[in-house]
Write a structure and sequence with these properties.
A hairpin with a 3-residue loop joins β3 (49-54) and β4. The protein has a 7-stranded mixed β-sheet, with helices on both faces. The protein starts with a helix and ends in a 7-residue tail after the last helix. The chain is α/β, with parallel strands linked by helices. The protein is built from 8 helices and 15 strands. The protein has 2 domains: 15-103, Translation factors (Elongation Factor Tu (Ef-tu), domain 3); 109-238, Rossmann fold (3-Layer(aba) Sandwich), CATH 3.40.50. It is globular. It binds flavin-adenine dinucleotide and FE2/S2 (inorganic) cluster. Residues 243-246, 248-253, 259, 261 line the site of FE2/S2 (inorganic) cluster.
Length: 279
């Protein structure tokens, strides 16, 4: 291997990529559609993340939000919270970013085949779940029932409105949604996401629950899945931790012996339920 080839395959060396489309999803979240300058596909699994860098500003881990079935480009949905993410929001088509990855263990797509899947998405948790939901919808005959429960704080904070509109009408899936607080015009369910569980009937042995949301949601959503009879090893979560290297070297994301960036971010609940501070 030449020195140039070694450099190009380095885990630490970002690949150059171009923003090809942006879309303001909500006040706080913006979608970035990105193409690698090499012309290659990202080659990710649903649930994996990339490290996105902006020259002179920094780097942040962001989940890939598009399905690997989408070829030629990939999508990130970014919430503006600090230096890197606010700078990402200022980018327009044509801007260049650095991309490392994809990193981490994604959702166990092969194990999900033939199963009923109960997706539980809280707020920005829909970003990584959307990758898997769209993958499953694109390979619909490989899977059993597809149920999606989505909760946002308010109607204005709902992400991916066009897709939500399709999911509401779709005969390929069963979709329920709720908001914590109404805006006065909202016609749907009001209440936290756990208020949707009593509305669904599932076969717990056949069902895998895939839960992604803010830290506070996990404990309650996992409990509801358990009340439905879903075994702990059929409850899948994705953990978010502070990360730097993304590749198991720096220890920033470590919880005891587990490196979330490398062993996760996707885990089944049986693997992590005894891990203090994981959930
Ligand atoms: C595996 C993984 C996947 C992620 N996927 C996404 C995604 O798809 N979309 C998205 O918008 N964000 C995602 N994040 C969170 C994102 O990485 C952070 O918001 C980002 O690193 C913040 O960087 P910053 O420079 O903009 O903010 P900073 O300037 O570093 O911090 C600004 C504020 O945000 C807080 N903060 C910083 N990092 C985090 C963090 N990791 N979690 C919570 N609070 C933090 C700080 O305490 C501070 O209050 C993900 C994180 C991980 C670990
Ligand atoms: S982010 Fe460096 S070890 Fe996980």
């Amino acid at each position: 291997m030449t020195a140039v080839e070694v450099q190009q395959t380095s885990l630490y060396l970002p690949s150059l990529a171009e923003i090809v489309r942006t879309e303001q999803l909500t006040k706080m979240e913006k979608l970035l559609e990105i193409k690698l300058k090499s012309g290659q596909d990202l080659g990710h699994q649903p649930g994996q993340f990339v490290e996105v860098s902006l020259f002179g500003i920094g780097e942040a881990p962001i989940s890939v939000s598009s399905s690997p079935t989408k070829k030629g480009s990939f999508e990130l949905a970014v919430r503006a919270v600090g230096n890197v993410t606010k700078a990402l929001h200022r980018l327009e088509p044509g801007a260049l970013v650095g991309i490392r990855g994809p990193f981490g263990k994604g959702f166990p797509v092969e194990e999900l085949k033939g199963k009923d899947i109960l997706f539980v998405a809280g707020g920005i948790g829909l970003v990584p779940l959307r990758s898997l939901i769209n993958y499953v919808l694109d390979r619909r005959s490989d899977f059993g029932r597809v149920l999606v429960l989505f909760g946002a704080k308010t109607p204005a904070e709902q992400l991916f409105l066009k897709e939500l509109a399709q999911w509401r009408e779709s005969k390929n899936m069963e979709y329920w949604e709720t908001v914590d607080r109404t805006d006065g015009q909202w016609q749907g369910n009001v209440g936290v996401i756990t208020t949707l569980f009593p509305k669904i009937t599932i076969d717990p042995q056949k069902t895998v629950a895939v839960i992604v949301g803010p830290p506070i949601m996990y404990r309650f959503a996992i409990l509801e899945a358990q009340v439905k009879g879903i075994p702990d090893d059929q409850i899948i979560v994705s953990l978010e931790r502070r990360m730097k290297c993304g590749v198991g070297k720096c220890g920033h994301c470590q919880i005891n012996q587990v490196y979330v960036c490398q062993d996760g971010p996707v885990f089944n609940y049986a693997q992590i339920k005894d891990l203090k501070e994981a959930i």
